[in-house]
């Protein structure tokens, strides 16, 4: 019977191993399929939210460009600017930067330089309006730019204030590029949207600009209104999903391979490179396992997102790669724990069955010996 026990336990263990492998493979496949659906859904939702945010920025920029208050304010600011002095740029910088008692930390609270000029009076009126816009919508700054390229107004009076975008030191910036694009367009409603790049006047923080023309009632361009966009709005949309047992990292990567949002483990100034990012920037959509520089494997969903295509026409100048990824070990760990518990339970039942079988067999053997002894006992 001992041989029977050994054969029985061997067959049982082989069966457990074979069935365990099949069950584990099926459970792994189901877990990956579920994670794939989750990552793809997360990616698609975030892209939809980005589309909505860009359209909102476009609508707001056009709304304020067409606003009666902005048109009137721009007209008065320009009149005051031209009357300020022979060199209005230097005079304005002296009034609102050099001699500003609230510079540099609280310049947005400085309404009027109290120099008695028309410029300062009109500055106070438009400042109350546009400062409220930055506070309520989170724009980093708002600009009013004259047709000759002079920045005649900003909310925060950084170093680009009262400089010229055609001839000044920031003439090569994306703000200047956007200004020229709007000016050169034959469409008075044209909107220029420029991707995030380090912007020197803002301490080289990444900045994006959206610009359009302010047109008077006679269809003449008064100037241009521009919004400087911070990364905070993107960070809210592209925030990683963190729970007790998992973390889904979401990234937006620009054509320069730099992050457009900030994540915990990646820094915004470090270039990001892997196969998923390359494919997304090439306009491809998919999901696959990617081994990254930390030698971990990530299930990675990717897709392209054109920062400006939806509102400015089909252009590839602002294509991003949207990356949504999860460590494959995090995907499979819950399944592996479940499989271990299941195998432990089966092994325990098998051992219990073996013990009961052994006890039952042992009982029958003892009974047989007893009957045999009774048979051969002398009468």
In total, the number of strands is 10
- The residue ranges in which pLDDT falls below 50 over 5 or more consecutive positions are none
Our estimate of the beta-strand percent is: 15-25%
Gap between N and C termini, in Å?
32 Å
Task: Specify Rg, calculated over alpha carbons.
Answer: 35 Å
CATH second-level architecture of the largest domain:
2-Layer Sandwich
- In total, the number of domains comes to 2
Shape field: elongated
Mean pLDDT: 84
CATH class of the largest domain: Alpha Beta
- Strand order within the widest sheet? 2-1-5-4-3
SSE succession: HHHHEEHEEEHEEHEEHEH
Can you identify the CATH superfamily of the largest domain? PAS domain
Estimated helix fraction: 40-55%
Structural class: alpha+beta
List the helices and strands and how they pair.
Layout: H1 2-66, H2 68-84, H3 88-98, H4 118-137, E1 141-146, E2 151-154, H5 174-184, E3 191-199, E4 205-215, E5 221-229, H6 232-237, E6 241-242, E7 247-253, H7 275-281, E8 286-291, E9 297-306, H8 309-312, E10 319-327, H9 328-375
Antiparallel strand pairs: 1-2, 1-5, 3-4, 4-5, 6-7, 7-10, 8-9, 9-10
Helix pairs in contact: 1-9, 2-3, 2-4
In a few lines, what is going on in this structure?
The protein has 379 residues and is an alpha+beta fold. It is 50% helix and 19% strand. The chain has 2 domains: 2-55 and 238-332, Beta-Lactamase, CATH 3.30.450.20; 67-233, Beta-Lactamase, CATH 3.30.450.20.
What does this structure look like?
By secondary structure, this protein is an alpha+beta fold. The chain has 2 domains: 2-55 and 238-332, 2-Layer Sandwich (Beta-Lactamase); 67-233, Beta-Lactamase (2-Layer Sandwich). 50% of the residues lie in helices and 19% in strands. The protein has 9 helices and 10 strands. The strands form 2 sheets. Strands 2-1-5-4-3 form a 5-stranded antiparallel β-sheet, sandwiched between helices. α1 packs antiparallel against α9 (328-375), α2 crosses α3 (88-98) and α2 crosses α4. It is elongated and about 110 Å long. The mean pLDDT is 84.
